[in-house]
Amino acid sequence: MSEHGIRAAAVAVLGKNWEHDHTVPSRRLYPHQWSWDSAFTAVGWAHVDPERARLELESLLGAQWADGRVPQIAFDPGTARDAYAPGPDFWRSAQVPGAPVRETSGIVQPPLHAVAAWEVFRADPGPGRAFLERVYSGLRSQHEYLRRERADGDLAVIVHPWESGQDNCPSWDAELAGVAPPADALDGYQRRDLDHADPADRPTDRDYAAYIHLAGRYRDHGYRDADALPDHSFVVTDPLFNALLGWSDEALARIADELGLLAQQHRDDARRVRDALLTELWDADAGHFFARGRHSGRTVEYAVGGLAPLVLDLPADVVDALVRGIRGPRFALDDRGPLPSYDRTAPGFDPTRYWRGAAWVNTSWLVLRGLERHGRHDEADTLRAALLTAVGDGFFEYYDPLTGTGRGSPEFSWSAALVLDVLARVPGGVAR
Known about the structure:
Elements: H1 3-17, E1 18-19, E2 22-23, E3 33-34, H2 35-45, H3 50-61, E4 73-74, H4 88-91, H5 113-123, H6 125-149, E5 151-152, E6 155-156, H7 173-176, H8 193-196, H9 205-220, H10 225-228, E7 236-237, H11 239-259, H12 264-281, E8 282-283, E9 288-289, E10 292-293, E11 297-298, H13 316-327, H14 361-373, H15 377-390, E12 398-399, E13 406-407, H16 413-425
């Protein structure tokens, strides 16, 4: 498919998934608004309809909690309550003081939203400045929540695999080993994901039981981190989550500058995140950033999230080591498809199972932006070509990194949106 054809198809996917003030990830499996999906999708909308990009982020921030958390899911009140599980009746946000009127989940996702807001502003600066004035306070509060309630020194922790966005990545296995869900954890629970996807691609029932158990315990503490975290059995410091926190700190500084506000605190926050990632999660011998569990310690699993700190201002030797890993056998960069989510040489590598090897457009896009930042043009060109090759047969949720075959939900929003950004950033590209 030509670049013009890819662009037209991507715009059509976003149009089909638009729902009055936000974009659903896919009509088939994800009928509500997801947090980091909306950030990715806003980046794409900015190139073709900036007003929808602004609505995307503002509708999500309209579901922000009083404590500053931006929820993983904001439920669409016009959609059946049991259309997705776990749905609003599981999360019970309406019973929690400080939760918004719109029902939501009680956990979060990676904080990419300030980056998205800045990209949306850059695409349409005229009305964009008023947009920045409207969203800045909420974005700042999001970061303050993470630093106040989820602090691990200068980094932030996640309390559920779903908060990472990389649901059943092997990086969480060691910490999940300490989670002991009851035998009846899934009793009365219908896995809607299995209605729409190959069970061989999805997390196992054992994993899902752990996910539901963890979410239920957090809910039963009223989502109060001070009460829940002391005895919580899953507390992880994730390199991708924190890389996006630091990257968004940089974006908040730019937004503050644009609004004539004090920006130095945001720059200092970004620097502290970068330095803490290098001090605490970087392994120079391995050439990779690794997650760390509070109970399990550092987990030496080569996941694509360990490449995400490339979006930050890293030392040259760290960039060189990460690029060697990208080009090496673990991630095997070539122009045939996105980067695998997990080490291709590992015994547990599975090219079709969620986050255990399957290749995703969004994480490859993050790596691409990092490569561009550090002037690694050869690798960036290869990865850009790989993304365009993958979507030539459709905008799928994820792809088999060995064959390039699309898997999961078709007409997936962030795959379409981020390819629009890829096209727009190519000199002379069709979306410019």
